[in-house]
Amino acid sequence: MNRILLPIILLVSVIGFTQNRKGQFHLQKPDAMHDLYVAFEPSDVLSAGTLTQTLVYQFPELESLQAEYQFTFEKGIAINNQKLSEMEADAKRFKGNASAVHVLRGIYKIHMANADNTELLALAEKLERLSAVRYCELVSKQPIVPPADIAPATPDFRPLQTYYEADPGVNMQYAHDMGLTGTGIRIRDVEYGMNKQHEEFVDVAAVQLGPDMTISSDATPAYVDHGTAVTGIMCADNGTYGITGLSYNAAEFLMFPEWQETGYNRVFAISQSIENSVAGDVIIFEMQTGGQTSTAYVPEEFNQVSWDLVKAATDSGITIVAAAGNGNQNLDATFYQNYMNRGDSGAIIVGGGTPNTSHNKISYSTYGSRVDVQGWASNVYATGYGDAAEIGGDYNQQYTIFSGTSSATPVVSGCVVALQQYYFEQTGSYMLPQDIRTLLKDTGIAQGSGGNVGPLPNMEAAITALQEQLGLKSEHEVVFSVYPNPAYETVNVHGIFSASAKAEIFTVTGQKVIESNLGSQNQIAIPGLASGMYILKITNGNAVTSKKIIVRQ
Hints:
Blueprint: H1 2-18, E1 34-40, H2 51-58, H3 63-69, E2 72-75, H4 81-95, H5 99-102, E3 107-111, H6 117-127, E4 133-140, H7 172-177, E5 186-191, E6 207-209, H8 221-235, E7 252-257, E8 259-260, E9 263-264, H9 266-275, E10 282-285, E11 288-290, E12 297-299, H10 304-315, E13 319-323, H11 337-341, E14 348-353, E15 373-376, E16 380-383, E17 389-390, E18 398-402, H12 404-427, H13 433-443, H14 459-469, E19 480-483, E20 490-495, E21 502-507, E22 512-517, E23 523-525, E24 532-540, E25 543-551
Parallel strand pairs: 5-7, 5-10, 6-7, 10-13, 13-14, 14-15
Antiparallel strand pairs: 1-3, 1-4, 2-3, 8-9, 11-12, 16-18, 17-18, 19-20, 20-23, 21-22, 21-24, 24-25
Helix pairs in contact: 4-10, 8-12, 9-10, 12-14, 13-14
Protein name: S8 family serine peptidase
Organism: Flavobacterium silvaticum
Keywords: Hydrolase, Protease, Serine protease, Signal
């Protein structure tokens, strides 16, 4: 057995040596009960009975503490072993090693009957004296505040979504004009819940709770409507009333509530969002956590268990877009040095900026070199709450002016989804999280005054840069996107075309089977085409471009 275990133990010992993670646990909310998590150097051992017996057998120095406090262990990360193995394989493919995923196997939660915070703090201190322990973390068991058309007829509020437009907005309209509305991309949101009965997504099949997830009946509208607002910004129906989501054609938008009927458990919600994701998916962290004080709000990844989860997810190709928090904290300050020393988790951290061409830091946004990009932190028209509009006194027809890093994060997430869709349509693979982050930062609109919250995404500049990177930008080429692909009865072609533009579909042997004028209509009927691969050729003036499409009948 020693021959098998030694390489693993040596690997994780190097990780533990280079990143001292001890001495960082604290009470997230002094007046709340907490769960105690302990992260060991992970290694594979033969079972010695119960999980607690196995860990005591593996780490004999635990024995006296376990006898003194009478605690037991349970698995800390709710991701099954098969999924972890798949993530490890992806991490090796994308990053060259799976160490960030492997550490999740060594995180456990301690169960100790009737333990108060004083006892948990004392136990955490003693546990961290053990050489086998990487760190301890205390996680609040009580909620932490979020960072914040049916008859009668609802007006069309789309003109009020000015964050869609060019500077001072992110120019999402440019992406939509190319058909980049989220097609084929899966989105997850971790926070408190949503009102699925809202008129904007009651009939949208893609918008659902995550598998086996519930929303606590104790979660008031003040909490649930936070998720309703985010869901609307991302996936509100593209209809003739209300608002339109930035990613309204997304393949899935799944909500993973941290406050469920079984209680409040943020680590579980994050774990489940990751377990139900694969490379190319986008997870939104609409959460913040206490930093130097319980109300000095910073990114959720300040919590060590969350940081490990984020790092494992991004290494395996899952993009995480996370709110910086509304605590006006400088993450480069001395207090946050241990957090910064952990390195790059791979997440896109979103700060809050002003909704004008100055793009200054909003007063309350957390900031610093770790914050990557900004989004609008005020004046974001969204679903829920009812402060902006309530049609017919109906809770399901409420609209709001959303704000904070809460509104900034979905605005940036919509940009991420559109870029991921475009990249996949052009290459058949997905951008890595760090590559998307770099693209947004390099092509964004520069920040104005205040501590660093990063540039505002600029979709036209980002797409243009991506086209150049992929070798697609040329005066002799047509820029367009195709969906769905595979196609069934019709092919939709999105781009900017002249009245004389035409589409031709050829078999792989060169036989033309369909010719159609594009002009004002961008849909090509493909009746009778046999299943298989075809070439779609678009001619627009002197520019000609071809793409492969798949037909399934």
